[in-house]
Amino acid sequence: MKYTKEHEWLRVEGDLVVVGITQHAAEALGDVVFVELPEPETQVAAGDEVCVIESVKAASDILAPVDGEIVAVNEALADNPGLVNEDPLGAAWFFKMKIDDLGVLDDLMDEDEYNELIG
Amino acid sequence: MSDLKRLALHDLHVALGGKMVAFAGYEMPVQYPLGVMKEHLQTRQSAGLFDVSHMGQVILRPKGSYEATALAFEALMPVDVLSVAEGRQRYGLFTNDSGGILDDLMFANRGDHLFVVVNAACKEADLAHMQAHLSDTTEVIAVTDRCLLALQGPQAEAALSRLVPQAAAMRFMDVAQVPTLFGELWISRSGYTGEDGYEISVPEAGAEGLAKALLDMPEVEAIGLGARDSLRLEAGLCLYGHDIDETTSPVEAALTWAIQKARRAGGARAGGFPGAARILRELAEGPERLRVGLRPEGRAPMREGVELFATDGTPLGKITSGGFGPSVEAPVAMGYVARAHAGIGTELAAELRGKRQPLTVAAMPFQPTTYKR
């Protein structure tokens, strides 16, 4: 698993990258009540705002962690946004991306580095 | 948070795992480990204990007769103070000369004096306002050695009655002063969640004991400001500085129920309050805009500041409070729109993240209230 400074995790699954938010992020957001997902088959650049998460407290964006194409989104989150709090690292994945070069993931944080970031 | 004032029960909130944030000049618990959603539902289903000691408690002690003080106080509000019976509380609001709202408040007739509770952010200004206008008839005394706790929810009566048996017999908006082992409690059967419950003023020395005694009961959990906000929003209650302020009149704010007959045109003591010209005119002719309840379509919350439009694109106003209603299980909001678009069922649009989204004017409260009348 790889991590970004924006508190997203990335997991390689075959030739796809699955993206979600970390336990730390889910706890900081509080109870999630709404998730707006991107359209599948969208080309995105790293840093693009691709999802909106609304918690009882505030709205936040999820950014594309790397360049690539969004090929699948987790429709279960639209019906049950609370999954983000219940299982942020598993059932509450947000989208799957196809990227040209999996090597770009090497620039992201590993688990130890991320744990250091959140202290 | 060095410039912020601390609550007398600060250490208890920290020990309970409260997440402390800045609010109205105080460090306040916004939530506990339960989280906003569960705290909200806990209050609706059982009972929640809120520390609202940041609010201002004020005694208005007559220098002469009670009636003279009541009439002087009445001159600051479009509200009938004089008819409030001993042992009863009423909602009030200070208006300014242009008919806007300086603050909203609760006041109670305690026989030989009045007891007033005002908003935290306004309390210094309110004290100055009362001192400036009431000093001929009244001693205005800020109560600074007491905490204010709110116990809200369907189990509030069962919980408080174990400590204060008299609480069970109180009706909505009754007040009582009750000696207890925590000191003399000043109890009102009221609150700001839409639920049955109590607000309890307790001497600082007894506050921790009272709070712990209530929190030890299986029905009661500590509830933070986050859930307080979603509870009052579902109940359709205004938050000063957001839904009402110095520019909104009580008529625009749909608070005409707070203006009793005696102060309206043709009433026994009609007018005579700041901003009476505008407020009486709006009562007669209708205001230009009105505070309304709003139900966004779908699940996306619409929050304060979101702009509202007619379906043909005409700008109408803004959302003043909004969020997800955990009991309604949907987003709810309130805001101001031109009167022609204020009818229940009117379809509107809101601009959310660059897109127009549909929403409908809806009756408030969004969640039925359970006051024990």
Verbal overview:
The complex is a heterodimer of chains A (119) and B (373). Chain A is an alpha+beta fold and 119 residues long. Chain A has a single domain, classed as OB fold (Dihydrolipoamide Acetyltransferase, E2P) (Beta Barrel), CATH 2.40.50.100. Helices cover 19% and strands 37% of the residues of chain A. Chain A has 4 helices and 9 strands, in the order E-E-E-H-E-E-E-E-E-H-H-E-H. In chain A, the strands form 2 sheets. In chain A, strands 1-2-3-9-8-5 form a 6-stranded antiparallel sheet. A 3-stranded antiparallel sheet of chain A has the order 4-6-7. In chain A, a hairpin with a 3-residue loop joins strand 6 and strand 7. Chain A is globular. In chain B, helix 2 packs across helix 7 (225-234). In chain B, a hairpin with a 2-residue loop joins strand 19 and strand 20 (355-362). The longest helix of chain B has 12 residues, at 123-134. Among the domains of chain B are: 5-54 and 145-232, Gyrase A, domain 2, CATH 3.30.1360; 288-373, Aminomethyltransferase beta-barrel domains (Elongation Factor Tu (Ef-tu), domain 3). The termini of chain B are far apart. Chain B is α+β, with helices and mostly antiparallel strands and 373 residues long. The chains are: A alpha+beta (119), B alpha+beta (373). The interface between A and B is medium-sized, with 13 and 17 residues.
